[in-house]
Design goal:
2 helices, binds zinc ion, 102 residues, mainly alpha
Amino acid sequence: MLELCPVGSKTDRPCPRLATTEPQGRERGGRKLCEVHAALKPLEEEIEDLGAAEELLEGWIEEARRLDNASLEMVLRHAREEMSARLEFLEEGVDAVHTTQR
Ligand SMILES: [Zn+2]
């Protein structure tokens, strides 16, 4: 039986597409979504992971500063910049899909 995509079903802007596709990523094998939202799942998970990683890096940068280890701090700051850039790129992409697909 075909059901509607559950994304936004509890909001005033529910997804209008049919739930035809199994999500990829950590929710693989979970409740079916529309093609668009199923494809976005792994990206949303990456965004979540990057957000968590950024927080961890913040703590490690603090620790490097506390240890007065400039080399470590530099490497960690570089990693954080790369993560921020990737996060921004993914968020913009996912937002663009949400605003054009709904
Ligand atoms: Zn959907």
